[in-house]
Write a structure and sequence with these properties.
With 265 residues, this protein is of the alpha/beta class. It has 10 helices and 7 strands.
Length: 265
């Protein structure tokens, strides 16, 4: 049985990866992993591929036995793994409870790594992995401090794993979205006292991010995917400029709100 696995599948970019998947990947089943069982079950209605909901809260590190045991029982071939589950926040790092920062690390780093490692033994030549990072993967980002640091891990991990797994014919690519209007903002703004982060240069539709990611995964040899001129331009500049200057520019931008009302809707 050939399958695709998507974490963070019940909303946002993860849901859009699910929507566009049949255009790119032929599998017998899609395993959807997220906290909300009802949403996952509803997503399977009228879908052209059989859907298996796998309710898991990836912030709880004791849940991975559910996935491990399911793999051992079904013995599928994983043709595509998309690690899209993630948590972000805006605001002063010192006003954030330590437990919240730890939760961000658990989901964005530990869960992603664990899902990847558990899945690889069930992959074969031609299998693919997308690890969802962020534009923040490329630079330190004040007032998104822990989130940006975890996404730097995701980018580094994905690119290194791509090199390691190349001899086995398994491809790994990091997806690095710019700002995307999803439920991410609903959560992130909860800690954004005083609008420490209020400048959103561009808000991309999830559809565009995902379409570009699939195209880059299946039609190129890239080890990261950046959608749009704003994204690619930022990556280019951040490679050239000292990070001290990049952070100074970032902080200055936050004094001039842009697209804030749209992001907060």
């Amino acid at each position: 049985m050939n399958i695709a696995v998507i974490t963070g599948a019940s909303s946002g970019i993860g849901k859009e990866f699910f929507n566009q998947l049949p255009k790119w990947c032929e599998v017998d089943e899609v395993w959807l992993i997220a906290r909300r069982k009802e949403r996952l079950e509803a997503m399977g209605e009228n879908y052209p591929i059989k859907v298996r909901p796998v309710p898991m809260d990836l912030s709880k590190l004791d849940v991975f036995d559910i996935y491990k045991n399911l793999l051992e029982s079904e013995k599928p071939t994983i043709k595509l793994l998309i690690n899209c589950a993630g948590i972000g926040q805006f605001g002063d790092a010192l006003n954030t409870p330590i437990e919240q920062d730890q939760k961000i690390i658990d989901v964005n780093c530990k869960a992603l790594l664990t899902m990847t490692r558990l899945s690889i033994p069930y992959m074969e030549k031609g299998s693919k992995i997308m690890e969802v990072g962020s534009m923040s993967s490329f630079q330190p980002t004040p007032y998104m401090t822990t989130y940006a640091a975890t996404k730097a891990f995701v980018l580094s991990y994905a690119r290194a794993m791509n090199a390691e797994l190349k001899p086995r014919g398994i491809r790994v690519m990091c997806v690095t979205p710019y700002y995307v209007k999803t439920e991410f903002f609903d959560y992130a703004f909860k800690t954004n006292e005083g609008n420490k982060v209020q400048h959103f240069g561009k808000l991309y539709p999830a559809e565009d991010i995902v379409k570009t990611a699939y195209k880059d995964l299946y039609k190129s040899k890239k080890d990261y995917s950046a959608c749009g001129f704003s994204s690619r331009g930022q990556v280019f500049l951040v490679k050239l400029l000292p990070h001290k200057l990049v952070m100074k520019i970032w902080l200055k931008q936050q004094s001039k709100p842009k697209n804030l009302d749209e992001a907060m809707k």
